[in-house]
Amino acid sequence: MEYINYLYIALSAAIISVLYAFVLYRRNKKLVVGDKRMEEISSYIHEGAMAFLKREYKIIAIFVLNKTINVVAKWTEE
Question: What distances in angstroms separate CA 1 from CA 10, 13, 14, 43, one per listed residue?
Fold first, then answer.
């Protein structure tokens, strides 16, 4: 019974978090970028962030693939 209560609490927290993220996203999209220079700087920051995320996802994918292979290998040994 207690397990079900924790499940409901976790699901409720997840739903509230997603809704709050959506509200923040909508509020950010309504903000004015500014003048041309600010827009240019913003595009540079965005480009750098996307390059970082691309590299980060590659590293995470390699890590997850490695761990998956290890787990499957260990599981098939038994």
Answer: 15, 19, 20, 51
